[in-house]
Amino acid sequence: MESLSKARLETLKSIADGDKDFLSQLVTTFLLDSKNEMEKVEQAIISGDDAVIAAAAHKLKGSSSNIGAVRLAKLCEALAALTGKGDTQKQAEIVRGIHQEYSGLEKALKEAF
Question: What's this model's pTM, rounded to 2 decimal places?
Fold first, then answer.
């Protein structure tokens, strides 16, 4: 599975209609918001707050899907599915995967737009 959906990137470029500032702002907002949601997830796993984990994973999944970050969206979906099951080790493993995927996305998104 690819990290970024080429079709989604093309759709976003089409919507922007050549406005590179808009695309840059979109990427910057996604990256900042995503980092914030990842921090919420980490703290919620430590404190055992399933509601926060679910909400942050859901929000991150949605924004990832919107920008075309397919693999990140799938990881967030998997994290949300674990909510309430008490498997903090698996949650932590998925969070590591989310961080790893996010690191590659930063560069890929900036290059794409």
Answer: 0.90
